[in-house]
Specification:
Blueprint: H1 2-9, H2 12-28, H3 32-35, E1 42-46, E2 49-52, H4 53-71, H5 82-105, H6 112-121, E3 126-127, E4 130-131, H7 133-142, H8 147-169, H9 175-180
Antiparallel strand pairs: 1-2, 3-4
């Protein structure tokens, strides 16, 4: 069997194949596989974060699932306007990323304990008033997240919420604005 393998490696076909592989790797490197794949077009960019077609499609699907979950089983999923849902998902992604980046730039952080407590207290993940891990995992999976991605999303969302609350709490009105109102 070993002799058969040696004989096959001495054939002209094997030598041509090995030569072609060497030429491709020499000219293009190991990234040559990406050369022939279509790149994912960028839809929008917020700072260093790019919203690609794939990210937008994933978020559109999440928004569709959220909508179906909110309206219940009697709703016809075919009646959803896919284009409007896609526009809404893009607006949500942009708004969310601006808030995330602003909270990050202002060094607004949330503790792991706060994130954990928020997840444990959320009635969506509870059965009989107690946190139910299978329900939690099912909901997270339904939204298209891994558990770690979801925890990171909640953490960033809490940072954005703290930013929003800080802006609202610091708002003030001039006397002339109050009089005019």
């Amino acid at each position: 069997m070993l002799q058969e393998l040696r004989n096959q490696t001495q054939s002209l076909g094997f030598k041509v194949l090995a030569g072609a592989i060497i030429v491709v790797l020499t000219l293009f490197g190991f990234g040559a596989t990406n050369l022939f794949l279509a790149s994912d077009p960028t839809i929008a960019a917020i700072g260093d974060y790019e919203i690609t077609e794939t990210v937008l499609e994933r978020e559109t699907e999440r928004e569709r699932r959220k909508l179906l979950f909110q309206v219940g089983e009697d709703f016809d999923p075919n009646s959803i306007d896919r284009l409007k849902l896609r526009e809404y998902a893009l607006e949500q992604l942009i708004t969310k990323e601006v808030l995330f980046q602003t909270a990050e730039n202002l060094n607004i952080r949330t503790s792991k304990a706060l994130v954990d407590q928020r997840l444990l207290d959320n009635p969506i993940y509870q059965k009989n008033g107690l946190f139910d891990e299978p329900t939690y995992r099912q909901q997270v999976q339904m939204l298209g997240f891994t558990p770690l991605q979801f925890i990171d999303e909640v953490r960033q969302g809490l940072g954005s919420e703290l930013l929003r609350q800080g802006v609202v709490a610091s708002g003030f009105a001039q006397d002339w604005e109050i009089a005019q109102a």
